[in-house]
From TrEMBL:
Pfam families: Methyltransf_25. It comes from Curtobacterium luteum. It comes from the Bacteria. Residues 7-80 form the Methyltransferase domain. This is Methyltransferase type 11. Keywords: Methyltransferase, Transferase. GO terms for biological process: methylation. CDD domains: AdoMet_MTases. GO terms for molecular function: methyltransferase activity.
Length: 194
């Protein structure tokens, strides 16, 4: 599904130029205004909906998380909606991210073998090491990132503290119930008026 359309003014934000290039090529990408940056770079024009999809929330560390939610609140009209997904720590998805799960795809630089390894280094903090091996040269590049798996109560508290009300948490984007093993929590809330 795409939100982009002739009757909507849609803005897309990502701090990665590579990801923005990929987003531009998606269906409807040509009718979206793309911004290289984060929530601080969203123009102060009233919006009806702020969405974070594709597991963005796990990449936003604690130092920036509360500010991000407040930034989104500040660009929403009163009663406007914030909706985002966040990985459910109870499902412990990282335990399946091991070097056994290798896959290979064809790239412009030849076949690329990819795998990840992950360790929970503190409650709700998962250190991911993602490795990429160029098969033709046997060169391996790896990067490491700490991902945040915030719990249900923490998310509800954070969203309320950022100026939202009527916070609901679902188990998927179809508003299904949150279960212990739901891979993600989908949080939906309304911006409080000034
Ligand atoms: C798993 S990708 C998902 C990309 C895209 N949202 C999608 O659904 O296909 C996570 C994205 O979050 C982006 N990201 C990381 N920190 C961010 C932030 N503070 N604000 C917005 N996006 C961020 C990354 O650059 C990356 O493109």
């Amino acid at each position: 599904m795409t939100l982009a359309g002739v009757d909507r003014d849609v803005l897309g934000v990502d701090p990665s130029a590579t990801m923005l290039d990929a987003a531009r090529r998606r269906p409807g990408g040509g009718s979206v205004s793309w911004i290289l940056g984060d929530s601080r770079d969203v123009p102060a024009e009233p919006r009806d909906l702020a969405l974070m999809t594709g597991n963005v929330a796990q990449h936003i560390g604690d130092a920036a998380w509360q500010r991000t939610l407040r930034d989104l609140r500040s660009v929403l009209v009163p009663g406007g909606t914030v909706a985002f997904e966040s990985r459910n720590p109870a499902a412990r998805a990282w335990e399946a991210w091991t070097s056994d799960g290798r896959s290979t795809r064809v790239t412009a630089a030849g076949p690329l073998e990819e795998w990840s390894e992950a360790t929970e280094i503190a409650p709700g903090v998962v250190r991911l090491v993602a490795s990429n091996r160029f098969v033709d040269t046997d060169e391996t590049l790896a990067y490491s990132e700490d991902l945040r798996f915030r719990g249900h109560d923490e998310l509800v508290c954070d969203v309320g503290a950022a100026g939202f009300e009527a916070v609901e948490v679902f188990g998927d984007w179809q508003r299904g119930p949150l279960r212990e093993d739901s891979p993600v929590m989908v949080v939906v809330a309304s911006a409080v008026g000034d």
